[in-house]
Amino acid sequence: MNDKIRLRFAPSPTGALHIGGVRTALYNYLFTQKMGGTLILRIEDTDQTRYVPGAEAYILESLRWLGMEFDEGPGIGGDFGPYRQSERKSLYGKYAQNLIDSGNAYYAFDTAEELTAMREAYESRKETFRYDGITRQELNNSLTLSAEEVKTKLENGDPYTIRLKVPRDEEVVINDIVRGEVVFRTNELDDKVMLKGDGMPTYHLANIVDDHLMKISHVVRGEEWLPSTAHHVLLYRFLGWEDTMPQFAHLPLILKPSPDSYITKENKVALAERLVDEFFNKNEEIDQSYRSDALAFLSQIFQDKKNVVSKLKISKKDDDNKRALKVFLKSNLSGKLSKRDGDRLGFPVFPLSWVGETKEDSFKGFREFGFMPQAMLNFLAFLGWNPGTEQEIFSLPEMVDAFSLDRIGKAGARFDFDKAKWFNQQYLIQSDNATLVELLKPMVKEKNYEVTDEYLTAAVGMMKERVNTLPEIIETGYYFFEPVKEYEEKMIHKKWNPDRKTALLDLKEQLENLPDYQAEKLEASTKTYLEANGLSFGDVFPFYRIALSGTTKGPALFEMMEALGKAEVEKRLLTAFPAFDEVFATKTNS
Ligand code: GLU
After folding, report:
1. Is 316 a catalytic residue?
2. Is 11 touching ligand 1 by the criterion CB < 6 Å?
3. Which end of the chain is more exposed for a tag (fewer CB within 10 A), N or C?
């Protein structure tokens, strides 16, 4: 145990925890485990306006499902609690006061209306308003008002916020474990609010105070927090804590999948239409008459799938509509992965399903897509980190062993759903059938399939290498549980020969007469039959397979026959052959 290494995962309960957050949790977990340190869960719920009921429970349930255990946190305990910032509210005021007293923060009395008016005035001049070292000189705060005025306002209970007084003309240098030296110029920073009108601290103040009080040694978090880190370093400095400041590691962004991984011949028209619909919804000022041009542009760029994004460069020749379209497409087809991408493109970006207030805010999770938690972790581990070897499959303990912060990359990591499925498949193949059977039972029950454990084990054994996720075993392999719904027509059209029926039925009978309806025996007997009758495997196998499973791509024939059993096989063959004749007839007639 190394009590100097203390890391925290500090989610805000503002909705479902997306995979970026899960990856942050995972890297915190891996590093802590590797170092024998302590892992803390801290709920950062100071922003009451963004608080979403159920989000904290969702976070806890996700972490539990994934098997990441914490040492301290809400419901777990620890010496540094409470671990929910809302329950620490009374603690932060004195640090804000401390900043005021040392001249590093000030009271700002500007009302929300005044600030909005200010923002609008700037916008009308195509500028962006920022409360900073320059503008604060003109605003309503304790730096511009006289001491007397300030005193009166405070005594009158006038609402105020406390803002950080960012110094002018300085540089703040951060040595980030992932990004190396990062330099910020203070003139680019705003005077962030530390304490809000409702007396609650902002994320920035609470985060720094808590990291200090909880003796956090390393802050491992997403790159989106890098710009705030300059403020955080200033806070450590002003509060006199710079010498125990944690080390920072900012994780790379998770990027959208590359369009060529999801644009297919089948979906490209629908995808183009959906994007154009969204484009017009977002840009109401654009005339609908542009729609056909927009669709034409999309169908043109979708033709060269690999270079879709490079075709979105804005050129001087583009008119306003095209420019707007390109900007829109760029933000939808490239850049940071967003929670909407999952829905649009049909993959999960959350660990578990989330039911939000609206349909748009409800998402299906990795778990519900049929992923195993270990596979999801393995997939996420590689979104930004690599072990420097060829090994791809890591159990959690193996991952801990191989993990180090200095093997985290700076470049954005591209989300690749096919890779996620590949990982899951590897875990399915590796898992023993009995475990999978247990996981599958609730789904089998939900479908009202009645089968024995032994039968389910056989089906799982045959199907697990043919699917990417657990539910697919009963979706793709439904024919283990109910009659074949549809026969693969192409093969029948191409190869069926109604005259072959006699031999197929003859063989069926020979097999039924075997004392043992068992795979190897069935195979041996079939071979003998084929040889004796001058037939080849190809004359028989495809039709038996289609008859039993609807497809030629199902599991090995004789194993499947053994599992289904003599009576069921007979039933399926007798139903299938006349059906093949019919399917075949549709070909000759057309
Ligand atoms: N509460 C912040 C979040 O939701 C934590 C950022 C940090 O780790 O400092 O991501």
Report:
1. yes
2. yes
3. C
Q: Which CATH architecture has domain 489-589?
A: Orthogonal Bundle (1.10)
The 10 Å Cβ neighbour count of residue 78 is 16
CA distance 578 to 378: 48
Query: What's the whole-model pTM score?
Result: 0.90
Residues 6+ apart with CB under 8 A from 170: 185, 186
Q: Where are the domains of the chain?
A: 88-251, 259-334, 431-480, 489-589
User: Atom of ligand 1 at shortest distance to CA of 24?
Assistant: 8
* Calpha distance 403→15 (Å, rounded): 29
DSSP-derived secondary structure for 85-128: GGGGHHHHHHHHHHHHHTTSEEEE---HHHHHHHHHHHHHTT--
State the Cα–Cα distance between residues 431 and 374, nearest whole angstrom.
11
Along the 590 residues of the chain, how does pLDDT read in single tens digits? Answer: 788 999 999 999 999 999 999 999 999 999 999 999 999 999 999 988 888 999 999 999 999 999 999 999 999 999 999 999 999 999 999 999 999 999 999 999 999 999 999 999 999 999 999 999 999 999 999 999 999 999 999 999 999 999 999 999 999 999 999 999 999 999 999 999 999 998 899 999 999 999 999 999 999 999 999 999 999 999 999 999 999 999 999 999 999 999 988 898 888 999 999 999 999 999 999 999 999 999 999 999 999 888 999 999 999 999 999 999 999 999 999 999 998 888 888 899 999 999 988 888 899 999 999 999 999 999 999 999 999 999 999 999 999 999 999 999 999 999 999 999 999 999 999 999 999 999 999 999 999 999 999 999 999 999 999 999 999 999 999 999 999 999 999 989 998 988 989 999 999 999 999 999 999 999 999 999 999 999 999 899 999 999 999 999 999 999 999 999 999 999 999 999 999 999 888 875 55
Listed in sequence order, the residues at least 6 apart from 443 whose beta carbon sits closer than 8 Å to its beta carbon are 470, 471, 474
Spatial strand order of the sheet with 247-251 comes to: 38-41, 6-9, 218-222, 247-251
431-480: CATH class: mainly alpha
Ligand 1 atom showing the smallest separation from residue 9 Cα: 8
For residue 59, the CA-to-ligand 1 centroid distance in Å is 13
225 close to ligand 1 (CB < 6 Angstrom): yes
H-run or E-run covering 183: strand 180-185
Over its C-alpha atoms, the chain yields an Rg (Å, rounded) of 32
Angle (nearest 5°) at CA 50 between 55 and 327: 105
The CATH number of domain 88-251, selected from 3.30.2380.10, 3.30.420.40, 3.90.1210.10, 3.90.800.10: 3.90.800.10
Catalytic residue among 126, 265, 316, 485: 316
